[in-house]
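Dear Dr. L.,

I hope this message finds you well. Following up on our conversation about the binding site, I have prepared a predicted three-dimensional model of the protein together with zinc ion. For your records, I am including the exact sequence and ligand specification that went into the calculation, followed by the structure tokens. Please feel free to forward this to your student if that is useful.
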Amino acid sequence: MIKVGIAGVPLALKGKSTGEGIKYLSDIGLDALEVQFVRRVSMKEETALAVGEIARKSKIDLSVHAPYMINLASEDPTIISDSINRIKLSVDRANALGAQIVVFHSAYYTKKYTKGETFELVKDACVGLLEYMNDAHITQTHLGVELLGRQSQFGTVEELQKLQQELPRVRPVIDFSHLHARCNGCLNTVEDFARVLRALSNRNHIHIHFSGIEFSKGNERRHLPVDLNQFKLLADALKQYGCDATIICESPLLEKDAAMMKSFFK
Ligand SMILES: [Zn+2]
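The resulting structure of the complex is given below.
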């Protein structure tokens, strides 16, 4: 089963609440919403419980995007512990929402650490977060480490594959637009997409981000509307591979593009 949704509040409902956004997405035939905590986790626990109830009634699957200010491999231990706390708070709210996954941008490479050491720091933080979730009996929400779109960021296909092999409870979030930027436009055939799905799905439900992307020298510059010819390649790869997935549209056209994406799976 392939579900399609958007990140944030629908364009048609700019300035309105998450609950209203959820009902609207359900009305226009979409399946999912990623709740975005851009700077901080601003949603209160009671609100999260109420929004979760609306989502269940509207049959909209929820996910959470943790705040962007996160670096689990910083040279400064205070930044690492602050980052872990932001993810913990996101996990708590995700649990109250009944969200399936908490997506986060895990780390930047630094001068101090090699890429191998950066990997170990991210892994250590994830081990701690999994323990926290175990202790809090949080079982339905997964940790989602996002594939990132800049050369300075941790989160290549290979790094996420290794992380998943060592910590099966941590799921890669495959942001194909980030990958397309990072590899200078390498996603051009069904097989290009299928290869990534094989590397990262591990037969679990796959959480995907998709949009068009402007890039230069292996770095993302900005999100663009979805290129439907390119999206068809992903849709075909998903059908061939036969996996369950949620695809979150991050294009500037949000629900408009998401509705087009959804039409590939009807
Ligand atoms: Zn992201």
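In brief: The pocket of zinc ion is lined by residues 65, 103, 105, 146 (CB under 6 Å).

With kind regards,
A. P.
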